């Protein structure tokens, strides 16, 4: 068990906790906060693999991941605001039955 | 890693899962829920303390700062549990800031200074502030029902921790399929590489641009660090390696010289410059694509936020929110501003 295993393990645990929050919570915003937790797990994973392979590819990829996370947060929150304006609630169950 | 430790790790994961399940918002009477969630937090805290001891133990006596690994890891996981189980979204966002800070600490321990700073600035300073603003814009009075109840928490907990257990198992034990694949890869690469490619070492470096694809494929099926002890001991400050590999596989003197000078150069330049070199050198196209992606997303977000819906398509909620236009009959009337006081609890 080396340092890389620690990073990968903690990354996996964070990912699982984020996944669990995403599946179980009903508030749309908290669901997206859980995806941000998943992103943190992935970042730790990448840093661990960067240590393992001895180069900076992991860190570069993490930077791109931060870009993607920011972009996704912006768009997701815009869409959430649209949905909130429609129904007045942030409940994900409100949209369970999709009207075609 | 001994089987006893592996089962201990599984026990830690089960404790975490149980704690999180008990702490999730659920349809229970309030007093019972409060007691159960406190019990859940205690169980999860016990699991986390156990995990902290395991981390300190596994890192061995060679790492000086191993206590900090344990502290930051435990902090990150505890804050992540709170993000996911808290009833109020604002607190979830604040605990997410704590997760980001703990991740930043772990990045600093890995000598990833630029990444740590970028995480704090971009995540803590921009993304989470945006989240808090949107939460404030879209809030309900008091506790909304969708914050108090969760959807099938038991299934969610079981499924995600099953995934976690599978990932942990794949990480810590060596399975025969992965070993076979690693041996097959060794045969392929034997003729191509400078030194022999051992199982625990690296593929791509910045100098060997032609063999870049060799590296990442190693990462997928993990032949693990069962023999990884020597690897981390070779390069003294293990984590300050920037460009070249620090494996024991480059045994030719020329390669060893190259590794030594590259490491010295990396230490002299520092992490930020090395990351800059990597980004602008190897990943230039990716940087440009990321820029274009951000531009497109920004345009998309503005388009989404500005969307106007015609009157006849308004839902009943939107109709209730619309202000009735005052009939002035030609006179100019000062607009009467209605200040609404909302009770925040």
Give a brief outline of the structure.
Chain A is mainly alpha-helical. Chain A has helices spanning 3-24, 28-53, 57-87. The longest helix of chain A has 31 residues, at 57-87.
Characterise this structure.
The complex is a heterodimer of chains A (100) and B (345). Chain A is elongated and about 50 Å long. Chain A is built from three helices and no strands. Chain A is mainly alpha-helical. Chain A starts with a helix and ends in a 13-residue tail after the last helix. In chain A, helix 2 (28-53) packs antiparallel against helix 3. Chain A has helices spanning 3-24, 28-53, 57-87. By secondary structure, chain B is mostly helical. Chain B is built from 14 helices and no strands. In chain B, helix 1 (3-23) runs antiparallel to helix 2, helix 1 (3-23) packs antiparallel against helix 7 (153-172) and helix 2 packs antiparallel against helix 3. The longest helix of chain B has 30 residues, at 30-59. Chain B starts with a helix and ends in a 24-residue tail after the last helix. Chains A and B meet through helix 1, helix 2 and helix 3 of A and helix 1, helix 2, helix 3, helix 4 and helix 5 of B.
Please give a handful of descriptors for the protein shown:
heterodimer, A: 100 residues, mainly alpha, 3 helices, 79% helix, elongated, B: 345 residues, 14 helices, 65% helix, 0% strand, extended
């Amino acid at each position: 068990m080396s340092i890389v295993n620690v990073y990968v393990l903690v990354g996996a645990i964070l990912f699982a906790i984020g996944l669990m929050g995403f599946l179980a919570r009903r508030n749309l915003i908290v669901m997206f906060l859980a995806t941000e937790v998943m992103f943190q797990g992935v970042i730790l994973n990448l840093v661990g693999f960067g240590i393992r392979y001895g180069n900076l590819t992991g860190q570069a990829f993490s930077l791109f991941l931060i870009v993607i996370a920011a972009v996704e947060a912006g768009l997701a929150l815009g869409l959430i605001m649209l949905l909130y304006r429609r129904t007045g609630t942030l409940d994900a169950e409100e949209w369970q039955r999709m009207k075609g | 890693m001994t089987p006893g430790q592996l089962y201990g790790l599984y026990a830690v994961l089960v404790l975490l899962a149980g704690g999180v399940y008990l702490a999730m918002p659920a349809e229970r009477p309030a007093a019972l829920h409060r007691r159960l969630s406190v019990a859940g937090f205690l169980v999860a805290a016990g699991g986390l303390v156990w995990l902290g001891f395991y981390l300190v133990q596994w890192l061995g006596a060679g790492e000086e700062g191993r206590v900090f690994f344990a502290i930051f890891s435990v902090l990150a996981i505890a804050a992540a549990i709170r993000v996911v189980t808290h009833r109020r979204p604002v607190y979830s966002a604040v605990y997410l800031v704590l997760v980001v800070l703990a991740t930043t600490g772990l990045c600093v321990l890995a000598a990833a200074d630029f990444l740590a700073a970028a995480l704090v600035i971009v995540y803590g300073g921009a993304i989470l502030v945006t989240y808090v603003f949107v939460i404030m814009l879209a809030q309900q009075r008091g506790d909304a029902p969708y914050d108090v109840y969760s959807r099938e928490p038991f299934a969610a907990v079981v499924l995600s921790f099953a995934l976690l257990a599978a990932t942990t198992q794949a990480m810590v034990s060596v399975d025969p399929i992965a070993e076979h694949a690693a041996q097959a890869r060794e045969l392929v690469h034997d003729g191509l590489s400078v030194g022999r490619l051992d199982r625990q070492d690296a593929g791509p470096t910045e100098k060997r641009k032609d063999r870049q694809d060799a590296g990442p494929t190693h990462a997928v099926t993990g032949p693990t660090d069962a023999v990884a002890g020597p690897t981390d001991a070779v390069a003294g400050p293990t984590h300050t390696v920037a460009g070249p590999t620090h494996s024991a596989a480059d045994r030719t003197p020329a390669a060893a010289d190259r590794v030594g000078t590259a490491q010295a150069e990396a230490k002299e330049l520092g992490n930020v410059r090395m990351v800059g070199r990597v980004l602008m050198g190897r990943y230039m196209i990716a940087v440009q694509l990321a820029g274009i992606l951000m531009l497109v997303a920004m345009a998309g977000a503005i388009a989404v936020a500005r969307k106007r819906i015609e009157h006849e398509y308004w839902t009943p909620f939107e109709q209730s929110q619309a202000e009735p236009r005052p009939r002035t009959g030609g006179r100019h009337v000062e607009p009467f501003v209605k200040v609404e006081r909302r009770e925040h609890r």
